[in-house]
């Protein structure tokens, strides 16, 4: 685009911080992809002109850039495909992926051997055929993750269209290029591929999310000739929409027993005696988290204790627990992207001494590696140590955990209905 926008090739190279030779090589590579000249060759120092094909290419590229949103331009997470050792890792995959592989193996990777099983396999996967060096969507099953994520209307319209172009340029979807570039290897060698894919992908609502999934790519025989069959399973995805960010509802702590008898035990023990050395409170030691101010005025809180039966330990795992003890609760490397309004509750309770009881819904990375939506109650109390210094105690009771936002929303609605007047 710089070559088209500037008067001369020298001006374009200077604007990009490149040499004229380097820019010329890039233009030649682009023309090789297009299969025709994009620029009319000009005498040195004269203005470069676009050919008719170049003008068409430029207009489409300009349109693509104009449609980019700030979120598109600011994304720093690239699409990445990590190849895994198939024989070693296939047994560690989800039951769905393993069943797909076992069913394919049972018919010797030939869809003609068992029509019923072939129909079931095609229904949960994608298949591509090769035409003139390009991959064409041959079939998209209604029950595969891609159809559920992108929507069936999109998938139905994609059948018969190119799934990949031979080089990644500004006109081509970088996601499609990256995730399909190993199809040729599988097609030629017949060796299956198992990989972990992560990258930005727009869903049925045209909202981009950073998805992570495992997939199997395998060559199969069919009545239409050899095909590439792909089975992917989305394991987690980030949910950047504001409506899906952490939500918090403050509740009346005096009603804690009606919502959570488990947390009510802590509240009753605190009411009897807010000192840490009271026997009632110390008996609950394995199930609570204790945070201490590191500096005067409670500027920094660190996790001084996290019980082995505390809900966060059960959720994130003991390895996280051992790492988090002694770390500031504002350290995002340990605690994740914790919403500010959720974090504020710590300081409010510690400063005022007023107990806090809340219902929360938020997405966190689970110890399994998946992003999960958790719905839970939280009780926070201020205690005093034997030397008179205050500490914050946090107790949680989880009421549900779902991998998909839709299911988590239903779960939250059911729980929130209990709180309606």
TrEMBL record:
GO MF entries: DNA-binding transcription factor activity
Domain HTH lysR-type: 1-51
UniProt cross-references to SUPFAM superfamilies, sorted A to Z: Winged helix' DNA-binding domain
Signal peptide: none
Matching Pfam families: HTH_1
Transmembrane segments: none
Name by which UniProt lists this protein: Regulatory helix-turn-helix LysR family protein
Organism annotation: Aestuariispira insulae
UniProt lineage: Bacteria, Pseudomonadati, Pseudomonadota, Alphaproteobacteria, Rhodospirillales
